[in-house]
Each structure stands twice: as C-alpha cells, then as structure tokens.
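Repro case for the chain-ordering regression, as requested:
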Amino acid sequence: MSVLKQPFADRLAAAVRARRNPVVVGLDPRFAQLPEPLQVGVDPRDRRQVAAAYERFCRGIIDVVAPLAPAVKPQAAFFEQLGPPGMSVLAEVIAYARQRGLLVIFDGKRNDIGTTAEAYADAYLGDESAWGADALTVSPYLGDDSLEPFVATAQARGAGLFVLVKTSNPGGGTLQDLPSSGRPLYRHVADWVERLASQTKASGGYGAIGAVVGATYPQQLAELRQAMPHAWLLVPGYGSQGASAADVAGGFDARGLGAIVNNSRGIIFAHARAPFDRQFGPARWQDAVAAATGEMIEQLRAATNAGKL
Amino acid sequence: MSVLKQPFADRLAAAVRARRNPVVVGLDPRFAQLPEPLQVGVDPRDRRQVAAAYERFCRGIIDVVAPLAPAVKPQAAFFEQLGPPGMSVLAEVIAYARQRGLLVIFDGKRNDIGTTAEAYADAYLGDESAWGADALTVSPYLGDDSLEPFVATAQARGAGLFVLVKTSNPGGGTLQDLPSSGRPLYRHVADWVERLASQTKASGGYGAIGAVVGATYPQQLAELRQAMPHAWLLVPGYGSQGASAADVAGGFDARGLGAIVNNSRGIIFAHARAPFDRQFGPARWQDAVAAATGEMIEQLRAATNAGKL
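-- result from build under test --
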C-alpha cells in the first residue's frame, strides 16, 4: 500500500488547492481555556477526565475545520502533559482527523541520533506507523546523520518532515542568528534543508523535507522562501503570536503554494476573543471556530498569493 | 511536598556516592534484540504484546541494576514507536525504577517555544508530573526563552535538565562545530548552559541544568568540563558507540563527580556480546546485565576519578 502512496508534498499541494487556502489549525488544548461546556463536570486534577475533555474538544474542532482547511497540527506537548491517557487521546485525535480527510502534521520537534532517530521516524510517519501522521516536525541540532533516518522513512512512506529553521519565538535568535562564515546559522540549516528537499522532489516541484519558518520574521521568511525553492514552509506565529497576513505573504510561491500557515489559539479558542466572544460565546464555540477559520482564510486570500488558488 | 525536595544536582551526587560509580543504564528496548525468552510467544506486529515484553525486559533490568547503578535513562523513542501501549509501559517503567530507588532521566530531547515548553516541563519533571522523571534531556535550537520554562520548573520541583551541547554521533558537528566568533557553536551553547547551571547551583556546587556531551569526543569533553564547572555532564557514547573509560576521564571533577556515563546496548543486550554471550546466553540474560554493569563500573573506577568515590 505504502508503495502507491502519493508523496506528501503532492498530497499537501492537492489539499491546499482543494480547499483553496493554506490554513493549518493547531490543536493545542489547554484545560483552563476550553469552552465552558467542555469544562463542566471535569475535575482538572484528574488526567483521564481532562484527556477525555481534550478528545471532545479536538473532535469538535475537526468536525468544523475538515471541510475548510487542508491540515491540522496537534501539539504533542499538551497531550504528553496528561501522561498515558493524553497519549491515547492524541492517537484517537490523529486517526479521527485523517478519517475526516485532513492531513495531520505531528508537532513533536523530535530528534535523536541514528538508530534512535529511526525509531522516532518509524513511530510517527505514515499509515503503517503507530501514530499514523502525515508529517512530523524535527529539530536539526544533532546534525546530518540524525536527519537521514527521518528522510529515508518519510520518502519511503509518502510522508513529510518540517525541520526547524527559523522559529517564531523572540529568543529563537540565541542560536539561530549566530553568524558563521558571514551568514546566520539558520541560513546554514536552510541550505541543508534545501538539499534534502531537492533530493526528494516530487512531481509538483516540492520535496518531502520542508522547513519551519516563523511568521514573526517576515523579512527572513521571504529570504528563506528564495533560499529553499523546493521546501514547503510551515509557518507558525500567525494571530496570537502577532503576525498578520501581510507578514506571511513572502512565504508563498507565484502559484500560491509553498507555504502553510498555522494558527492555534486564534482559531481553537476563538470563542474567547473579539469579535467572536460577543457573537458566539462559549456555548456556540464551534461556530466561533468556523468563523475564525473563515476569517483567516479570507485574510490570507486578500493579502497573499493564496488568493490565486 | 515538592518544596522539601532536595535539588536534583545534590540527589544525583548522593546517588553516585552511594553506589560509588557514575553509571547510567540506558533503557532502549528493541524487540529484535530482546533475549529469546522474552520474545517467545510474542507477535512482533502486535504493539500491545511487544509493549508487554518491553515492560518485562525493563523491569528485569531495573531489578538487576537498582543496587548497582545510580540512574537509568529510558529512551522515549522506543516506547513511542509502539504508540499508546508503549507510552503506558514507559510510565510503568519510570514508576518502577523510582520505586526501586533509581534516579530516572527521561531521554526525550524535548523542545518548543514558551508556553508549549511549559507544558513539556510540567509533563516530565518531578513527582507531581504525569511521567514523574527526575530529569529530562532537552534540545537548545529554539533559543533562550524556550529553555526558561524548563529551568523554572526544574528548579521549583527539585528536578534536572540535560541540554544537548556536543552529541556523540559522527554528524553532530554539522551544526555544533560551525564556527561563530572564532568558537564552535557548541561552545556558545556551553556558555549558556553554564550560566543556567551557575544560577541554579545547589549546595554541592552543581546546578539543576546539565549538559549532554558525547564520550566519542574526549578532547571536547575535557574542554567542556572546564567550560561548564557548575554543570553535571551526561555522557553518552560509551561501549557500543566506541568510547572507552579513558575517553570519558576528562568529564569528571577531582572528586569523581560531575559526570555520569550512559551505556545502553552494551549493558541491556549484554547476553548477546562477548564475553557474556558464551558465559550466560539468553536464558541467563539478567546475569549478563549484572556482569556488564559490574565490568563498566570497574573500568570507570580504574581509568577515571570515579575511582576516588
């Protein structure tokens, strides 16, 4: 079966074209921010009960966004925080998202050396893996032989990787901006990612290996779009972290492809922010999710090449 | 309760002194390498059955090494590879190791930005966390604000961190050795770790923040011991990755403290390597684990300051 699987880069392009937008909905559940109806009757100290609430919440989001957005990105940390019951729910959420036709990017930022990296790759990538994700975020600090097993497995299973290049947080520059041979470290990582992307290029022109590049650094985003012409960019930082549609415009190619833009809190907790708090409130939180997703889609269509999709 | 908890750095020193050796036993189960008695009757395609075999195996190792070594280091990847059943077993293995008096270093190499890093820290560090580990390995690529929540939580809970500085794999240098301002990147990370270690210094002179420095680069290990006088070093690469006791000697301080040395395959799969394969074989695999642990302890005592413990 896996032999016939389309490459991830092409599946992602097809999903973005089909929905005519590049929105990734981040699944980052936090108990204190869940809509009130999902908190009622749940003891926040009981990890099983909280995990069950996360499952209801994530399924509710998936039901809303499946027809609207091409992909979801579960953030592993919030499920790991609950221990084994959280992990069981994470597996259920991934399976449900895929069943509803969404691509699933597992945000785990995993990394390790050789044979251990093989185990991580085998754990997460593709239908035959234990978690069944379409793609995984990985960290580059351990160097080239640490990424090889991820690349080989992604390629063999029609899955994808997003390597951290330039992250969206204020302190990302501590290492990423250190100059080496006249260029910041992140440019060295970008060259390496571009090599891997080019080597794994599918029919649509993009490879199995993409990059995480934060929306909060618009100039570097545009620079990195040029530096990695064969790499899909996963762009976090939209909304709650302060980046706008104009900030992410430089991430797209002329066709409106090449970048997918994540929004977590701005969509999943839309019931608690203006203008959706007044319009919908906690009881109609799923309507708020739909409205916030629609708002982001329109913003991206208006201010970026995603409007050409 | 957590307020009264001794700092991790002091608990680690006490454990090393009590066992008079710095050996960390890496729990890296792989089905194909399990002793035959643990494979019998297990369908390797059934993740629940494999997870149950991993639990028997890890408990068997813990029973042997608890009186001998100060700590174990479960490698998350091999449990994650089995999906939720693997995660449940990982939680059981951690709890059992602690119950048997071992310190547990969770090798997950986690990392993320601000509020997500908080969730990872809360997930793993200390008695009140879901996983209940004493320490966690973390990756530095996301920069200083990504480590802050880990540091704060470790400090508050008497737990520890080991930040990747110079890893043991051949390709580790891809980024870690890139020169910046005349020094390799890993030295910049080391300066940062030393600041955090110094800020969290406990009564024994070491801080809550340590560093991962591979045994396969003996010269850099000695250099980094000097560069990070307040950081415990977690030293992988002994045995299967080729490093000897002489190679790790530079990691210790004059008292025989300051470094702990991990060995995974060389101990847990000792039944399959000379001379223990002939001496014990699969049926007496636990005796092989005991003998291999004893061998490593003697090698370290003979060739390093651990002999002064």
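Ordering looks correct now. Chain B has 14 helices and ten strands.
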